[in-house]
Amino acid sequence: MANLTQDNIEKILEGVTDIYTEQGIIADSIEINDDKVTISILLNYPAQSYHQELTDSITSALADANINNVSVNIDTKIAKYATQKGVDILSEVKNIIAVASGKGGVGKSTTAVNLALALQSEGAKVAILDADIYGPSQPRMLGVSKLKPETTGEGKLLPILGHGMQSMSIGYLVDEDNPMIWRGPMVTQALEQMLRDTLWRGVDYMIIDLPPGTGDTQLTLSQKIPVSGSVIVTTPQDIALLDAKKGLKMFEKVNIPILGIVENMSLHICSKCGHEEAIFGVGGGESMAKDADVNFLGALPLEMDIRTDVDEGTPTVAKDPEGRVSQIYKEIAKKVSAKLTLQEKALGAFPSITIE
User: Fold this and answer.
1) Which residues contact 191 (CB under 8 A, 6 or more apart)?
2) Residue 238 in contact with residue 284, Cβ under 8 Å?
3) pLDDT digits over 168-214, tens only?
4) Domains and their CATH numbers in the chain
5) Residues 234, 262: Cα–Cα separation, whole Å
6) Strand partners, 332
7) Which residues does the annotation place in the binding site for ATP?
8) What is the rounded distance in angstroms from the CA atom of residue 170 to the CA atom of residue 137?
9) What angle (nearest 5°) sits at the alpha carbon of residue 134, between those of residues 152 and 306?
10) What's the average model confidence in pLDDT over 63-90?
11) From CA 112, how far away is CA 264, in angstroms rounded?
12) Per-residue DSSP letters for 320-339?
């Protein structure tokens, strides 16, 4: 077969677009044995639910060129991507993604935990850090609010596992009913300690659930924590969008890449009659993303189950992994992680130099 050459196959693959990175496919290896072709693809983001679709796209493109005896192997290798300059890295955490909102009540924590679980379901090793010191919610959302972290002999905290995912929160360390009556410096110190004094293990993505606003915690995040990118959560409501824009501008000013915007509570569907109603407005998040020239990651409906699932300690992605809402979260997760691959990879650590 005259067309059965590595160069020809590479050109065909370049014409197959990865729908999440919007780039052509580059094979990790191509083996040709008589009329048998074996193609190995190495994705840099977790997308197990996309592997079959991508395989079908590749085999279809090759079939159009009369190359039919094809085997496609897809594997994942998640790299570490660049963060702010001058911030100490975490050896066991490859990438940190901050989930933020300009105001409270837009479903940021619910989005954060479901995004984390969606990344895990797609094949990544994930951790979540609850950075909301005054109002920690992740322990209850993960169904592990009664647990307390153990301490190693070196004084490190062992993360609590919730639905198979590593987590840490001030909520594990204090009684749920006790308010945190702390000034700003104590809050920022607590955040840094939870991040650096927890014995994280082999984390591909750490999701940080930030408190709402643009205060001390967000400033600490930008100055002392190596963040690979951020996700802004809003509702279509005009007031929420005004505050979300402030959060977006904050990340721009501190040079943390914005991976995209998630619109929460976008449409209410009546559980009795199926009537659709845009209670908080229409298309605000998408319009904001367009104006700011950032990705619109997706819209979540206003559904009671999303709220009751986290209240019960089984977020939607964990409770109903094949459901419609879970599929939306998984699409958002793939878009977020794929967007991250378009950034520069982190440089290796420089060796220590001693002059005697």
Assistant:
1) 131, 133, 217, 220, 221, 225
2) yes
3) 999 998 877 666 676 767 878 888 899 999 999 999 999 999 988 76
4) 6-76 (3.30.300.130), 93-340 (3.40.50.300)
5) 6
6) none
7) 102-109
8) 10
9) 95
10) 92
11) 12
12) -TTSHHHHHHHHHHHHHHHH
Distance CA 314, CA 311 (A): 8
* Inter-CA distances, 160 with 133, 142, 309, 353, Å: 17, 10, 20, 37
pLDDT digits (tens, 9 = 90+) for 268-304: 666 667 666 666 666 778 888 888 889 999 999 888 8
Q: Binding site: which residues?
A: 102-109
Q: Is 80 exposed, middle or buried (0-12, 13-18, 19+ CB in 10 A)?
A: middle
Residue 161 to residue 159: CA distance in whole angstroms: 6
Q: What is the pLDDT of residues 335-354, one digit of tens each?
A: 999 999 998 887 654 343 34
Longest dimension (CA), the chain: 79
> What distance in Å separates the CA atoms of residue 167 and residue 261, rounded to the nearest whole number?
24
Q: Give me 296's structure tokens.
A: 């619109």
**Which element (helix H / strand E) includes 97?**
strand 93-100
